[in-house]
# Entry
Amino acid sequence: MIIQIKDMERLKGILLVLIITTTSGFAQEGWTLQDCIDYAIENNIQLKRQHLQSEIARNNFNQSRISLLPGLVAFANHDFNSGRALNYETYQWENREFEQGNIGMESRLNLFNGFQNYNNIQQQRFLLLSSLEQFEKAMNDISLNISAAFFQILLDKELVEIAEFQVEVSSLEMESARSNFLVGNISRGRVLEIESQLAADQYQLTLARNNLGSSYLVLMHMMQMDPDHDFRVARPEIVEIDESAILNTVENIYVEAEANLPQVRGAEYFLKSRERELAITRGQLSPSLALRGLFYSRYSELATDPIDGGNYPYATQIKDNQYRQLGISLQIPIFTGWSTRNRISNARVSVLDAQYRLDETRQNLYSEVHQMHNDAKNAYNRYISAEKAVLAAQESFQYAKEQFGLGLINFVDYQYAQSSLYRARSNMAQAKYEYYLRSKILDFYIGQPLALN
# Structure
């Protein structure tokens, strides 16, 4: 036989380790999925910009509430007159140079304007809530993308291990073949065939390592991390594969997703903001009532003291010339060139568009849930089939290896058995991580955090 007894024991040990890591995984130091998500959320520029938009919406909401307070304006004027000017002390026009001025404060409080201020506050509140939901959705999108890239690395790491196992097997066969060739048990051609197989397995290992490096680069770009950073992901303690995630129906998952995910709530808040905008424009047809208060005083260098006709200081003039006014103003819109009617019509269209946006968001979410559930179910079925295929391929490979060692089958048949085992293990790893990722996303839809066991 080509593979000696001690090599067989070594091969069994390698195979046992591979089976254990393929089915359960092992822990090692490195970045966990939560570490990667936290880093990406902290450093993502697009998310930072979305946060700024939320801050703008918050400022607009605060401003809408402050706008209920009465406005207060202070004013002061000082004029240098030259030529013909009105003397406010005598109310006569004089042709001379003199200085005069006035000071005062004016306040205005809207008592009623068709509830425009109230509706504006509600509109800005709903816009703020919608913006916050959009920010949360952006965080969820980043988390989901990071999770997909993270799982791709786990898959590629496992494919590297499978390829390493294939190289180890071929290396053992190469060592035994050379030993048997030296004692004349096999031909030179048999050694060359095994050497060719070892080179092919080493090539597959190189491809697997390159794919792993590319997957790391993709994840680091998503995290906006320096590619030169020493970065490695940590494997989960246990990768549990069970069908619990797909036992729940699509309808139940959708109901939970609609209640938990921010995109539907954000669209609902946006619709409510458009409804408030319509109420604001309708309020522009209503009469408006405002309370106005005014304090005013004036001074002039031409003024004389009314008692003795002497010098009249500016401070004394301001005290003596005080004027106060309190009034109520009513404005009734009669004709505005149909501009208000046009704004109301546009606001109705905006409400209808926001309703369509909400309906589209719900439809998209249902499609996502349905597609994810179907993909998870297919991946689980593929994993179950692949697991059986691996067991069958292992038995077939062991049998072919023994037959090849005895010279009862040719190298082509032996190579086919080995390649079938490699493909079966690769298919099982791909199905496993595909199902595991989709099952976690389904759990995320029903309110569970994105985390590995």
In short: Residues 1-28 have pLDDT under 50 and may be disordered. Residues 155 and 429 are 6 Å apart (CA to CA). The longest strand covers residues 98-112.
